[in-house]
């Protein structure tokens, strides 16, 4: 099966681990791209973590709607949507973040929505936190809950 992994970039190491397990199980897997070259004004050749960069540089309101960073964010979003279009299923990697177990952020929520609209299978690695106000929307898209067991992806 062709699988695209989604989740907070804060879980990138866990995404790589999940990718390796899924490949060992015989799946083709794509994960978010972090190796795209970053313009010098955003740090040059290193990886850009948008949320962290924004927080370290004045917060979201320091970046008006026409700021160049939003072009980079748009490109990253479109790149991942193409991966979702390519796959048969998505796997949402969701661990604890900001004290919330089973965290799923805004960008991952819209990726789940795109997968749902495209009629892709949706797998979620861990239970979704009830602290998330949009848990009902996630559950309404009928994901398969894996309870940490990636061997159930089929």
Give a short summary of the structure.
37% of the residues lie in helices and 13% in strands. By secondary structure, it is α/β, with parallel strands linked by helices.
**Counting H and I runs of at least 4 residues, what is the number of helices?**
5
What would CATH call the architecture? 3-Layer(aba) Sandwich
Give the count of structural domains. 1
Uncertain segments? none
Neighbour order of strands in the largest sheet: 2-1-3-4-5
Radius of gyration: 16 Å
Kindly state the percentage of residues in helix. Answer: 25-40%
Major β-sheet profile: 5 strands, parallel
| Global shape | globular
Q: Name the helix and strand elements from N-terminus to C-terminus, one letter apiece.
A: EHEHHEHEHE
Average pLDDT confidence is: 89
Distance N to C terminus = 7 Å
CATH class: Alpha Beta
- Provide the CATH topology: Rossmann fold
Helix vs. strand class: alpha/beta
Number of E-state strands: 5
Strand content: 5-15%
Q: How would you describe what is shown here?
A:
The chain is α/β, with parallel strands linked by helices and 154 residues long. The protein has one domain (2-152): Rossmann fold (3-Layer(aba) Sandwich), CATH 3.40.50. Helices cover 37% and strands 13% of the residues. It has helices at 12-24, 50-56, 68-86, 106-117, 135-140; strands spanning 2-7, 28-30, 89-93, 121-124, 144-145. The protein has a 5-stranded parallel beta sheet with strand order 2-1-3-4-5, sandwiched between helices. It is globular. The chain starts with a strand and ends in a 9-residue tail after the last strand. The mean pLDDT is 89.
